[in-house]
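Our collaborator T.R. sent over the components below with a one-line note: 'Predict the complex.' Nothing else. No constraints on interfaces, no templates requested, no preferences about which chain binds where. So this is a plain run: every listed entity goes in together, and whatever single assembly comes back becomes the starting point for the next discussion.
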Amino acid sequence: MVTVLGSPVCDARELAAQVTDPEMPMLTLADLGVLREVKVEGDRVRVVITPTYSGCPALATMRDDLVRVLTTAGYAAVDVVVALAPAWSSDWITERGRAALQAHGLSAPGPAPRRTGPVVLDLGPTRRDVACPRCGSGEVVLASEFGPTACTALYRCRACAEPFQHVKEI
Amino acid sequence: MTGDDAHWAFGTSFVDPLAGVDTTLPDGVDGGELAAYCLMLGDDALVASHRLAEWCSNAPDLEEDVALANIALDLLGQARLLLARAAAADPGAVPPLPAGSPVPGEDALAFFRDADDYRCVRLVEPENGDFGETVARLLCFATWRLALLARLVDSRDPVLAAIAAKGVKEVAYHRDHAARWVVTLARGTAESRRRVRAGLRAVWPHRAELARTHPVEARLARAGVAVDPADVVAEVDGVLAQVLRAADLDDLGPCAAGPVLDGPGGRDGRHTPDLAALLAEMQVVARAHPAGRW
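Returned assembly:
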């Protein structure tokens, strides 16, 4: 029961923060920056999450996982709602999240582009300062700008020859 | 949606993309007009997404299968948000379904409207044709949509503004992906240059429709809710000219848009025959099971 561990408010936040992303399970929703707010009123919880991409298919699973974890902890009603603004940015991935990505062989995003007004056309290959998460070499080559999930690109390391995913800047 | 949804015709684990979002209409804005505008932008994304998804397993290489499927997924997400916004703004716009059907408004709009009730521009409708034509179409579409969304971030409707702000980040890389392919193909072999050139010529005539202002767009633009497509023509032409210059295809030029479209177009529900064929395939399962279960 939640009351054993301290204030229910704190527990609901801690529990929600530990739910992991279904596509990158080394990241918690808190580390991914998707978890925006956890509000407790009595035995009811309201959780606010934000989608990473418009079509992110993981959102439904995140919702189900949050409901399951909080209901199991004893909350009578769990309401998971969506916040669209401000739009999610890869800058919201925490330092701990970046370390977790690295530890699992994914390269963390650099700073997201900041835009105002018309978006300038970029005809060249996407340039990033990427190092291989396995061997640390900067000798990497972009294999595909699109990867197995909306948020990653595929790279290959020239030094250790391993392929790896890079979480894109957005 | 609660209970057993394992056999739901509309997919499992459905979650309302606007769950908890305040969809109150801004002061002085008519719900019917706002819904009509959301259907225009939503149908553009939905139909473009469907065509791009058709490339999955048919693209020139595996990386391109993944790229086009990712772009299609972004557009599908935008379509879901916009259709859900339309349903919230004007529940009367949602086609009626049998009592007790669990189908949410966004799906009723996607699967139970006939082609005449779709509001997409004709540019997104034609069968894919060759890869050169697809990248030409995507370049045209994404350049135009990006210019619209970049202005829509200031919409007086906070929901539209938020959908646009998210969409800008996505459509920016859709456009650049298409532009790089156009340049790559144009500077590749004689055959790839011939094909991308043919692709551009095939989609060019549809550009006239992108510059037209529908009365709903005009009224909502004056109300600070929508973007008047006439306001983005110069920006779109500028970007396309930049790509054509890099591709050494200047002779196609933005001015060679072909004959101006007279009479009603896609925004009025007048479409190419290809849209009806696309919808027949996309909607068949949902229409066979309007109660949402099989």
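Summary for T.R.: Confidence is low (pLDDT under 50) at residues 1-6 of chain B.
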